[in-house]
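Quick one: structure tokens for this chain, please?
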Amino acid sequence: MALSNSQYNTIMRLYNERQFQNKYEQDRRVKEVYERLPQIRQIDEEVSTQAAACARRLLDGDTKARAALKQRLEDLREQKAALLEAGGYKPDYLEMHYHCPVCQDTGYVNGKKCRCFKKEEISLLYSQSNIQEVLKRENFSTFTFEYYDDKETVDQIGMTVADYMDQVYGWCREFVEGFPEQGGNLIFTGSTGVGKTFLTNCIAKDLIDRYQSVIYLSANDLFDIFSKNKFHYETEEEMRDMYQNILDCDLLIIDDLGTELNNTFVSSQLFYCINERLIRKKGTIISTNLSMDMLRDAYSDRISSRIISQYSIIPLYGGDIRTKKR
């Protein structure tokens, strides 16, 4: 996904701050050396004088001026290097120091994003996902089947929970591999602690690592943002950006749908969010403790019909894993 204007501007502000800091630090180093080694200031002044004199000679038609300047500057550089070394400084002490020498802290190389820009992109996407720290613990590499029963067959699925979760794990992997080209939306249903949020986090981390923008919000937080955007006319720019990002991000995760205080406003905003993201061909994952019948009763028919027709419904089974871990 291309970064939104606000996301791009956030990263470019970082590069502008780095460039300003680089210049500040270089000026500080130059001042320090000039005070300790006045001869170096004299050499730098002579370099400027020699360059100006060469320019005048070239304008007067002296074709040998450039070669003479080159030799003189080389002599001065050697003197300067010797003085720096004698003063205990590294040869590049007075030069500009960059966080990224490849792009020199511009973010671009030959008109293309530098590797460091892409790292900042991922860092920003992580920070805006709201689950940066959680994803370090909950991801595909830490997923385990050990807490799922592998002995008793569940009637609804005709297999053990462990075997079923092996299938679910595969579906989640396929979702990531096909994203965003194949698109798609998921809804995880099931009781508390069966792994709904963990699976969404697994998907979220892999997609962010592939430069996809992901936003995780609990249902309560989602509708709080919608409420502030609609009724607070002096909403802060950051909140307005968040509202737009909810509609535009590559993947929106709505966690614990059904725990919010439901009313006409909530239902209308949920429908708008789901429908708008379908129109924009953006992926959405919903997790809820409610069954599909309960969702149909809690929200409008328009919402349930959109979910049933446009989402892959993945019910999860088993006991509360968090209890088993204690």
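Residues 5-36 form the longest helix (32 residues).
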